[in-house]
Amino acid sequence: MKIPVFIYSVLICLISNTIYSQAYQVVYNYSIIDTKDEYGIIGFGKEKLITSEIESLSFSRNIDTVAVIKGIEEPHVQEASEYSASIYKEFMKGLRYCPTFFNYDLKDHDYSIEWEIGESTKNILGYNCQSAIGNYRGRNYIVFFTTDIPVQNGPHTFDNLPGLILEISSSDNVVHFLAESIKQVDEKIYNPFTKREYIDWEQFKILYKKYFERMTNYKPEEDMTVIVPNRGIEIYLDEK
């Protein structure tokens, strides 16, 4: 009688592993063009999101770009980079992990967005999408998500809607993500950010403020100043 029980247990285990290994791969094009002042950033790239219903891992890379930005004399030149792990999320715990250029990784437990579902619709990659609006760390956003793929996720930190987010636009026209491809994959999702100590978002802002003040006060030569951004997708420094 023990042999059938053993075989049954193995089958259950295999079925369970198959269920949890199924995921979607979504590739997004993104742009960040913040030229309000010298403390914004400009960047163009791709994000590859591997997501299941319980966790996800994103990889990001820069793309070769020469862009002429209105109001800026010199064209913006950016060289391509390889994909590198950028964000890991645990949905059940409401956590996201990502690297920082400090000697810590970010363990963020306060990134959730309160969404308001809208009435606008559009079709993206053949999927019927519905709009939602929300505020995230200094910017207002409109996003389009599809319930045809019932994974409550999206690029970067954007998630917690009843379907996969396929497009994101900030109301100030700075941030934009748009899905270019979607496919089902059978890939292992894991947390690559486990080797360094963690800081939370408030601790990150404290460290970044010290870094920003130190760098902006640094003058390598008498008539030279160092400019570092005070914001990206998120606003790093609280307005006074």
Main traits of this protein?
2 helices; 15% helix; outer membrane lipoprotein receptor (LolB), chain A; GLPGLI; single chain; GLPGLI family protein; 42% strand; disordered N terminus; alpha+beta; 12-stranded mixed sheet; two-stranded antiparallel ribbon; 240 residues
Describe the structure.
This is GLPGLI family protein. InterPro entries: GLPGLI. It comes from Flavobacterium rakeshii. The protein has 240 residues and is an alpha+beta fold. Helix content is 15%, strand content 42%. The N terminus is likely disordered. The protein has a single domain, classed as outer membrane lipoprotein receptor (LolB), chain A (Clam), CATH 2.50.20. The strands form two sheets. It has a twelve-stranded mixed sheet. Strands 4-5 form a two-stranded antiparallel sheet.
Which percent range describes the beta-strand content?
A: 35-45%
Alpha-carbon distance between the termini? Answer: 73 Å
Q: Which consecutive residue ranges, at least 5 long each, have pLDDT under 50?
A: 1-21
Helix content: 10-25%
Calculate Rg over CA atoms.
21 Å
Query: What is the string of SSEs from the N terminus onward?
Result: HEEEEEEEEEEEEEEH
For the secondary structure, the number of strands is: 14
Secondary structure class reads alpha+beta
The CATH top-level class label: Mainly Beta
Q: Give the overall shape.
A: globular
The largest β sheet comes out as: 12 strands, mixed
Strand order of the largest sheet: 9-10-11-12-13-1-2-3-6-7-8-14
CATH architecture: Clam
CATH topology name, in short, is outer membrane lipoprotein receptor (LolB), chain A
User: Overall mean pLDDT score?
Assistant: 87
The domain tally reads 1
